[in-house]
Amino acid sequence: MARIAYVNGRYVKLAEASVNIEDRGYQFGDGIYEVFYAYHGRLIDEALHFARLTRSRGEIGLAAPMSDAALRVVIQELMRRNRVGTGLIYLQLTRGVAPRDHAFPAARRPALTMTVRPKPAPPEGLAGWHAAAITLPDERWGRCDIKSINLLPNALAREAAKQAGALEAILFDTTGMVTEGASSSIWIVGADNVLRTRALDQRVLPGCTRAALLADVAAEGVTFREEGFSVEALRGAREVFMTSATSFVKPITRLDGAPVGNGAPGLVASRLYTRYLARLKEQGADV
Q1: Which residues face 135 on adjacent strands?
Q2: How far apart are CA 109 and CA 112, in angstroms?
Q3: By CB count within 10 A, which of 16, 30, 94, 218 is most buried?
Q4: Cβ 217 vs Cβ 284: under 8 Å
Q5: Catalytic annotation present for 162
Q6: pLDDT tens digits, residue range 210-259?
Q7: What stretch or stretches form a coiled coil here (predicted)?
Q8: Alpha carbons 209 and 186: distance in angstroms, whole number
Q9: Rounded-to-integer distance, Cα 52 and Cα 69, Å
Q10: Domains of the chain with bracketed CATH
Q11: What does the pLDDT profile of the chain (287 residues) look like in tens digits?
Q12: Which one of the listed residues 119, 147, 162, 250 is annotated catalytic?
């Protein structure tokens, strides 16, 4: 069956989908995006993703193409047409089509495109569900809290990780403090058994899986501090793991070629992964 995309009000075959050459997303990266994970037809952490989409829109002064309720209908219809119940929905919103000029054009209708593809549910356990990472200087722009489509530095970082035989690149700023992964939030458990992830600021994206996991941290009774940590602390951590809508909760067991802790998924990550699976099944139930 041919894959179907949504392009500015129309459902079209993916192979035939196109946007105008003067779309500002294409020429300036003037747009934002959101990625949803659907499980058994339900969007996981849906409210968090819609809230982040609204926030990103507001930060760059971009109008809503439709109401959230209408957008939910379009997403469900796109999933139905692609016969995908468990998978990823990619949504991109740009300032639309206008003659090329850096300043914003007069009011234009935003351009909305979406695609969907299958992605299996995470495994029941962490055996085989872990990865390696490298560390790199953070060379991204100064507003990483906006889910902008300007992702060239992220792509370069992920390619460097790939060339090193790793999955993720963990980024650090000019003061040696970890910001986040190229496409994930980063957590550590230090030698003091305290779980840490960086507090939200303009240097990190407010991850939806990160936000949802904070409730799980409290439920598990894990000692936790929302504070920054250095790349040295990262390298000396007992546990490192990443979270995102696509990686779920994934332990990092090797960093810059060296084992993290004992080289196996740690206890805290395992407990939080179990909680994540339970929440996933709860949100995707009764479909």
Answers
A1: 170
A2: 9
A3: 94
A4: no
A5: no
A6: 999 998 998 999 999 999 999 999 999 999 999 999 999 999 999 999 99
A7: none
A8: 11
A9: 15
A10: 4-118 (3.30.470.10), 131-283 (3.20.10.10)
A11: 679 999 999 999 999 999 999 999 999 999 999 999 999 999 999 999 999 999 999 999 999 999 999 999 999 999 999 999 999 999 999 999 999 999 999 878 899 999 999 999 999 999 899 999 999 999 999 999 999 999 999 999 999 999 999 999 999 999 999 999 999 999 999 999 999 999 999 999 999 999 999 989 989 999 999 999 999 999 999 999 999 999 999 999 999 999 999 999 999 999 999 999 999 999 987 54
A12: 147
Side chain identity at residue 208, one-letter code: C
Helix/strand number for the chain, H first, E second: 7, 15
Token representation of residue 11: 């459902």
Other beta carbons less than 10 A from residue 50's beta carbon = 17
Instruction: Tell me the one-letter amino acid at 251.
Output: P
Output the CA angle 258-263-266, nearest 5 degrees: 130
pTM above 0.70, yes or no: yes
How many Cβ atoms are within 10 Å of 278's Cβ, its own excluded? 11
Helix (H) or strand (E) holding 6: strand 4-7
